[in-house]
Design brief:
mainly alpha
Length: about 325
């Protein structure tokens, strides 16, 4: 065997040893063999296919197709997400945070006691929940809601499964479970909103609290950032290197969601106070200074004039035809 071949074998062995060290030796022996946790390849493959479908293939496939309604599917899907989030939230409280967990600094219990395994299983289920939430974006694509497939949405749905994978594989328990606790609580509210919204326009009057979901999400990122910062001060055995991923990501999420809130809600308030834009009835001189339209107004659900025997069934007042509701009531001046 030549020296170059020997070097290749040595390099390959070094890569294999490094791979095994990072993804097996460092991993939690209790969860190493659980589905999708053995190596990062399955999870990264899922995320790669997700990104390819949502950013390329799915949009091309839907280009000449009508959007899917998916009403019943969305109701069922969001209901399941609510149930899963409630379960994770309850497990995090009942097994840890309302028991003997320290709010300052809590190490991971790597034992196989029933309590430790219960917490590890809840962390694993949280990871699987993040994988299942990739369907959020897929449903947007199938419904041709491309405006919803924003950088914020895709980044959030891509990074959260990776963070949850790392937690389930390396430290399923301890201080970091606070993130899952708060996030599951937010998702109970968020997916309840989505489930109700899926019922259609009849539910819209009861969904006035939509913007407060974003406010809660901002509070979530602030709370998890401050809670995680304690590990930079206190040492209880929880791996500090995890904070180099968690803290920048929490700060970036906070900035992204703040920007979304400002554009979605603050700008909408400012826009409501602006003068009518070009293309509006006022700008095109279809409305006079007394806010009366200069053209006939029909409110029969269309822009068409209804005539019987060649005549309009509605009387004219000052040269303007009026009908103010679908019950046939006429406006008089």
């Amino acid at each position: 065997m030549s020296s170059s071949e020997n070097n290749t074998v040595v390099e390959q062995n070094a890569v294999v040893k490094f791979w095994n060290f990072v993804f097996f030796d460092l991993g939690d022996k209790r969860t190493n063999d659980w589905p999708l946790l053995g190596s990062p390849v399955p999870g990264l493959t899922i995320l790669g296919l997700y990104l390819y479908f949502c950013l390329s293939l799915g949009r091309k496939w839907m280009a000449n197709r009508p959007p899917f309604k998916l009403t019943k599917t969305l109701i069922a899907y969001n209901f399941i997400q609510v149930v899963v989030s409630v379960w994770i939230f309850f497990e995090a409280l009942d097994a840890a945070w309302l028991r003997d967990y320290s709010w300052r600094c809590e190490p991971v219990d790597f034992s196989r006691t029933p309590k430790a395994m219960r917490i590890a299983w809840a962390v694993y289920m949280y990871f699987l929940a993040k994988i299942s939430e990739l369907l959020d974006t897929i449903f947007f694509v199938l419904r041709k809601k491309d405006n919803q497939v924003s950088f914020l949405h895709v980044y959030h749905h891509t990074t959260m499964p990776m963070i949850a994978w790392g937690a389930a594989k390396y430290f399923p328990g301890g201080h970091g479970t606070f993130i899952g606790l708060v996030n599951s609580f937010i998702h109970i509210i968020m997916y309840t909103y989505y489930m109700l919204a899926a019922f259609g326009p009849k539910m819209q009057p009861y969904l006035w609290w939509k913007k407060y979901i974003t406010t809660l999400q901002l509070g979530q990122f602030l709370a998890t950032f401050l809670h995680s910062c304690q590990l930079l001060i206190y040492d209880c055995g929880y791996p500090r290197f995890a904070m180099y991923f968690v803290l920048p990501n929490a700060a970036f999420f906070f900035w992204l969601f703040s920007d979304f809130y400002r554009k979605a809600y603050s700008n909408s308030k400012a826009g409501s106070r602006r003068k009518p834009s070009k293309g509006s009835d006022t700008e095109n001189n279809n409305v006079d200074k007394n806010c009366n339209t200069k053209k006939p107004v029909y409110t029969n659900g269309t822009a068409e004039k209804i005539e019987l025997n060649g005549k309009s069934p509605f009387p004219k007042q000052n040269g303007v035809t009026h009908r103010v509701n679908g019950n046939g009531n006429l406006k008089t001046e």
